[in-house]
């Protein structure tokens, strides 16, 4: 179980998170939605310990995330970065197998990497290519394969379907749903895509103005009367969230 | 002023941390091997060319300068001592600052900006162990070898110019060089190499790891690293020369 209480994070006078409280149960799929720039990526980087919150506490299975405990948690985590963050000096398969190559499964690393690539709809012939030779959507999927490669207990997906065609997005949504349902993984997914929310989510949290504006089960979302949430779902530009340009 | 002191403090901490990873497993042998080849082997052409032309020019200068007080005959001795004690390590150091520091800083800064460093952390790999330590260690070990190569080729450049253009006898030129050089000349040269190699690599890593975001951040990190490494090498050279040779 992951609990966040009172998380604050400010960048050079720009308060991004202003007291985030959130609980994600074990084996649960939590989807975080929210406007662009609302701090969703910052929030999961705080959970991973990549950013240190200015205030508040993050606990994982009861233990606080601190620089000392971080390494132990990360061994059980997987993360898909919004921009892919593939190692451009390594071929695709070594990216996917990065953790495996440094662990007991070293001998089967390539085999597992190719299997994970297949799960995200990529063929074995790209295994020896370099990330810079792939399209944006392919890079995203390689990042996804890397996040799930070592069968982590908790996986973070930062916009897993942006940049993908609708069919491939469907494949990825199903994949994420499957790892949660079949492997019991805890998943925290950031997305703007309402189809993703439909497929992936057990629970949904909406980040707005640096706080969790609304949270509840996916079914409760349809009947919720929070004007911010309903506007986000329907995508209209009037009231109460002002579109800024 | 306060900012500069704080930066110096951060750099010192960074250096200390890097060294501390030397004795804490795991050690990434593959990354270390690659760094050895990148820093050592691929630097040979530029080191050789720099040393060769410098040695040749040095011989010409000493010959024409020495002629003013009829001391042309000291060319072999001065070329040997000038190359080995001073020009070999300094020029190789500056070439390494240009070639190795810049590429280390640009590569690591790009990795920082594209979140590859964060990705390393999430994959339970310490960026300092995986990126910094192998490069710093490789540069520290390879630079004495590169300096030895540079010293030798520099002396050879002087020898070639002296025997082909200035009418020196080949055998006695060699004899003079060998007789004149002392062990301290050579050990100081190699020791300087090690210090310069360490400085060049650690500065590149530090600027890369602390890079600002965006393409401009990468550019600034690279430029800053090369300038800082060059100045550090020249300053270290002064103090090492003082330590070795002032009596
Ligand atoms: N390392 C950083 N330094 C300074 N500011 C940052 C940093 N990371 C994020 N920010 C700022 O924090 C805010 C939130 O960024 P974040 O990336 O979390 O948004 P997001 O909700 O993920 O948006 P998107 O949906 O577009 O990805 C932005 O204003 C951004 O400029
Ligand atoms: Mg984001």
Description of the structure:
The complex is a heterodimer of chains A (245) and B (247). Chain A is of the alpha/beta class and 245 residues long. Helix content of chain A is 34%, strand content 25%. Chain A has nine helices and ten strands. By secondary structure, chain B is mainly α. Chain B has one domain. Chain B has helices spanning 2-21, 29-39, 44-67, 75-113, 116-122, 127-164, 170-180, 183-209, 214-245. The model of chain B has no long low-confidence stretch (mean pLDDT 94). The chains are: A alpha/beta (245), B mainly alpha (247). The complex binds adenosine-5'-triphosphate (ATP) and magnesium ion. Magnesium ion is lined by residues 40-41, 82, 158 of chain A.
Short structural description:
By secondary structure, chain A is of the alpha/beta class.
Offer a few descriptive terms.
heterodimer; A: 245 residues; alpha/beta; Rossmann fold; 2 domains; six-stranded mixed sheet; four-stranded antiparallel sheet; 34% helix; B: 247 residues; mainly alpha; 9 helices; 85% helix; binds adenosine-5'-triphosphate; binds magnesium ion
CATH superfamily of the largest domain in chain A: P-loop containing nucleotide triphosphate hydrolases
State the strand order across the main sheet of chain A.
6-7-8-3-9-10
**Pairing-aware structural class of the strands and helices of chain B?**
mainly alpha
CATH topology of the largest domain in chain A: Rossmann fold
Order of helices and strands of chain A: EEEHEEHEHHHEHEHEEHH
How many angstroms separate the termini of chain A?
Answer: 39 Å
Strand percent estimate of chain A: 25-35%
Classify the oligomer.
heterodimer
Spatial shape of chain A? globular
Query: Mean pLDDT of chain B, as a whole number?
Result: 94
Total domains of chain B, how many? 1
Extract low-pLDDT stretches of chain B: none
Low-confidence region ranges of chain A: none
Put simply, the count of helices of chain B is 9
Q: Please tell me the CATH architecture of the largest domain in chain A by its name.
A: 3-Layer(aba) Sandwich
